[in-house]
Amino acid sequence: MERRGWGGIKLGEGKIYTLSYADDVVLMAEEEQDMRAILNKLERYLERKGLELDEEKTKVMRFRKRRERNKKVDWRWKRRKLEKVK
């Protein structure tokens, strides 16, 4: 089985994992398991740096393929459910 990377969106020969502007960050992945891996890495990074994520300001926007439209996925940060937006 081929080992996959941990997320990102393909752009030419490379991948983009985040978009950043000031103190806002957008995390991107093509697959659910990749996004979960990115969130885990972010959690560890913030803990090492002594930083915290503001769950009140954090939103999840999910773009789905037609066959996955009815699939329900809960996104959590340290056991707190994150708000989903359209």
TrEMBL record:
PROSITE patterns: RT_POL (PS50878). Residues 1-82 form the Reverse transcriptase domain. InterPro entries: DNA/RNA_pol_sf, Rev_trsase/Diguanyl_cyclase, RT_dom. This is Reverse transcriptase domain-containing protein. One of its GO terms (biological process) is DNA biosynthetic process. Residues 28-59 form a coiled coil. It comes from Lasius niger. Keywords: Coiled coil.
